[in-house]
Amino acid sequence: MGQHTAGTERVADAEHMAHGQREPRGTRTHRPRLTSGLSVRAKAVLAAAGTVAFAIALCMLALVLALQHNLRASADLDARKAAVAIKGQLGKTRAMPQRAYIVAAPGAVTIRDASGRTVTPTAPADAASQGSTGLPALPVEPTEPVEAGQPYSVTVSPSTTSLDSATGLLLRQVAPAAAGLVLFVAGLTWLLVGRALRPVAAMRREFTEITERDLHRRVPVPRARDEIHRLARTMNATLDRLHRAMTRQRQFVADASHELRSPITAVRAQLELVLTRPSRTDWPAAVHKALRDTDRLQAVASDLLLLARLDAQEAPPKSAVDLGALAAEEVRRHPDALTMDQPTTAGGHLTKTAGHLTKAGGQERTAVVTGSRVQLSRLLTNLADNARRHTRTTVSISVAARGGMVELAVDDDGPGIPESDRERVFERFTRLDDARARQDGGTGLGLAIANDIAHAHGGTLTVLTSPRGGARLLLRLPRAA
């Protein structure tokens, strides 16, 4: 009773502590697993050794169960044979001497007469012979008189000696072999996994030493065409992209510094010249020159800020924008240099007459896209300004809806863009040979900004040959649903 009471008190204390120490909801922490601090090599060894040990244990269990089943069946059969033999001796009609009863049984024998009285014989300690059943035959003497021809019931217990000895022998023989096999598999796994992970260690050492100043270095690629080989190639491809991005970033910083330094230097030179000859200076002309350089400096700074925002991959505002209306506004700002002669609607046309736009047809507008009106207006302005700087006469703008896309084309009749430079013109601070003069007003960022805006809106901007002989800048954007 005392032990039972003490055990009950301990259980109650444990439950009280469990309820008292229960963590508040929302502050539960994840305990680290037992294998969280192990290496991949150690985890692989544990997994392999555990799997083999589990398989061997299952095989040994099945073998022991099968052996025990067979031995029990054999012992039961021997016991039944012995009981039949004893009962046959007891059923003889001729009386036999008391010492002549032979009990050949694998286990204990119980004999009962018709009244249920036990007349179990007892075996002398010095008798041992072989009976006709193949079992040890022990001459026994009944404790009670046995009358011939009387009915008796005989019960023989099967022997478990052979079962226990066979099971013990099997376990003693198989257990060392199983342990040796598990150790062999663990050692082999340790060696193979270590050899397989050797390139990973080399890759890790090389990757640890790579900094932003030596992105040209690459991790070693193993010759085996396995997962580690593909991992190394992926890491090197990532390093290639980082190297190219860093190179472009450094070139961009250098070009931006150069572009900003030029107008600053010009303004400084003009101010220093004015200060040296203040009485002979045309102050209005000097101020106008300084303002022009300041405007150029402001344009470069604005373009750099817009590029920084585009590089941040900020999603543009989602609103319906009619490219036809944007193009019409651009033409109205420059009526002497821009014309619009292509359809902006499904059947309607815009034509230019004396600097004014008129719309033919009354169908619903279809050149509508989703995006930022401010950015798309900047894109169109950059394309128009670039075309106006290179055209001989005028620039034509056309907008049309084709399937699920809206196309905006800006054509000029200038010298055009060679095919070898049609990808390079979208790089930042890029000027072709006939457009390198900064007095033309370009910063070298207009087409780069337009290309980035087009990609931010899920579209494309390509350079083609215009039917007018110059260059065609074709913008394709997804049509609004």
TrEMBL record:
Keyword Transport: no
InterPro entries registered for this protein in UniProt: HAMP_dom, HATPase_C_sf, HATPase_dom, His_kinase_dom, HisK_dim/P_dom, HisK_dim/P_sf, Sig_transdc_His_kin-like_C, TCS_sensor_his_kinase
Membrane-traversing stretches: 44-67, 174-197
Keywords: Kinase, Membrane, Phosphoprotein, Transferase, Transmembrane, Transmembrane helix, Two-component regulatory system
GO molecular-function terms, A-Z: kinase activity
Subcellular compartments: Cell membrane
Reactions the enzyme catalyzes: ATP + protein L-histidine = ADP + protein N-phospho-L-histidine
HAMP domain residues: 194-247
EC number, UniProt record: 2.7.13.3
Signal peptide from the UniProt entry: none
Pfam families with a match to the protein in the record: HAMP, HATPase_c, HisKA
Region (Disordered): 1-35, 117-138
Ranges where the Histidine kinase domain occurs: 255-481
Biased composition (Basic and acidic residues): 10-26
PROSITE patterns reported for this sequence: HAMP, HIS_KIN
Major place of residence: membrane
Origin superkingdom: Bacteria
PANTHER family, alphabetized: SENSOR HISTIDINE KINASE TRCS, SENSOR HISTIDINE KINASE YKOH
Protein name, UniProt field: histidine kinase
Originating organism: Streptomyces javensis
